[in-house]
Specification:
Structural class: alpha/beta
Strand content: 5-15%
Order of helices and strands: HHEHEHEHEEHEHEHEHEHHH
Radius of gyration: 19 Å
Number of helices: 12
Helix content: 40-55%
Length: 319
């Protein structure tokens, strides 16, 4: 099942999504952009939400040219009024939403005590409160129309804590916990057959996340054995059609997920040692930055961000 999840949908799967409506936060780059553009090829309707309106228009153009329908709603997910406007616009234009994908998020890398408290606070606002607001709006839509699936993008860090990602990892753990609670509430309300929630849990992936993260580690943002974004894009879309409550994406994420359940202390120690070597010991120097935590950045506009290529060049230079 997990290997199928990382591949593009079959033709029959693609036909099932034609005409379906997806709300996607964080749609201006990374997974969100990749999902939106692929759904355009499947002739779906997409509601694109993010802070960078110019990029959303660019994504919308790609979706429309591929045969899908797209609307743009400039949204800061940390503002509940923006999320409500997103839900209201979706209902007005498309009559509702079949799927709501909470993908918007930002990182902060560095020793816990070195990252400014204001940045931790904003991370919680975006990564967790934004998912809470989005999930709340989605559930209201789904209950009113009698069906829907909520897809929250967590991380392997939802299950496996990682050094130097303290607040980011904490918010992703909270996203996983929220999904588990909502699953039980949906069951108790008698809506289990028609309303569902899934948490996507990728490994480290080569997207603009690394360039957009606040960074106080002293080195360029990086992680070992990064995956390409395509498999996560496929997994998010796959989850819209399959019953899976939690979906670790790829063998590395699934291996870490299972390992932590069996050997939690060992897995945490190995994970910490790996990131310490890559991020603290071997990363080329980089100045401190708040990244895109407080305001959007011009850079990082695609799905893939070339981090793996950069790391190969850095490794050659180090040797």
């Amino acid at each position: 099942m997990n290997s199928c999840a990382t591949k593009p949908l079959s033709k029959s799967g693609q036909r099932k999504l034609a005409g379906k409506t997806f709300v996607i936060t964080g749609a201006s780059s990374g997974f969100g952009r990749g999902v939106a553009e692929q759904l355009g090829e499947y002739k779906a309707n997409v509601v694109l939400a993010a802070r960078r309106g110019d990029l959303l228009e660019e994504v919308a153009d790609v979706v429309r040219k591929a045969g899908g329908k797209a609307i743009v709603v400039v949204t800061d997910v940390s503002r509940p009024e923006d999320i409500q406007r997103l839900a209201d616009t979706t209902k007005t234009v498309f009559g509702g939403a079949d799927f709501w994908i909470n993908d918007a998020g930002v990182g902060a890398i560095g020793r816990f005590e070195t990252i400014p408290v204001a940045e931790y606070s904003k991370l919680v606002d975006v990564n967790f409160k934004g998912v809470v607001y989005g999930s709340n709006a989605a559930m209201a839509l789904f209950k009113a129309q009698g069906h829907g699936k909520l897809i929250n993008v967590g991380s392997v860090e939802s299950a496996v804590p990682l050094a130097y990602h303290a607040t980011y990892g904490s918010t992703k753990a909270a996203v996983r916990a929220l999904g588990n609670v909502l699953h039980q509430e949906i069951r108790l309300s008698g809506n289990k057959k028609n309303i569902k929630v899934v948490t996507i849990m990728p490994w480290a992936v080569d997207t603009p996340f690394w360039g957009h993260a606040a960074n106080y580690s002293g080195g360029t943002p990086r992680m070992a054995a990064m995956d390409g974004p395509g498999k996560v894009v496929n997994a998010i879309i796959f989850s819209s059609l399959h019953r899976k409550r939690e979906l670790p994406v790829g063998w590395k994420a699934r291996g870490a997920y299972i390992s932590h359940r069996l050997f939690p202390h060992f897995t945490e120690r190995i994970s910490a040692n790996i990131i310490h070597r890559y991020q603290i010991k071997n990363a080329p120097p980089a100045p401190a930055t708040s990244g895109a935590v407080f305001a959007p950045m011009e850079t990082g506009r695609g799905v893939d961000d070339g981090v793996r290529k950069r790391m190969k060049q850095e490794k050659k230079q180090r040797k």
